[in-house]
Predict the structure.
Amino acid sequence: MAMRDLRNDRARRAGVREERLRATAGLRTTETLSSWRGRSGRRYIVGVHPLAETEVFEVTTDAVILAVKRDEAGTAHVIDVATASSYPGEQARARWVAEVQNRGANEMHVHRLAHDEGERRAMIDDLRQDDESDG
């Protein structure tokens, strides 16, 4: 029990971060896979898409979408997190994409494995950066 508590405490201190999937390095797919580690230490598998690929919203309404800025060093930073159903209309989606793009986002990371709205909400809370309270 003490070891688990120590691991969980270490994960919380590390903060939200991307952890690349080594197992997918040689795969030839149209979608790159990656993962994010939340503040809780929980891991979420995502598909990585260019920010301009807004049809991601159209193919799923039950996904969690991370607007991500990948910097010059290749490090990913979460700009905003939302559910696909948060922006049901085309104009609302376009406004959100423009807003996160203005804030530096250049990728969308899409998690489609949450079973219900409660899981999606918990994931958003887990991945939202502390300094993101304004967006």
Q: What stands out?
A: The longest helix spans residues 2-14.
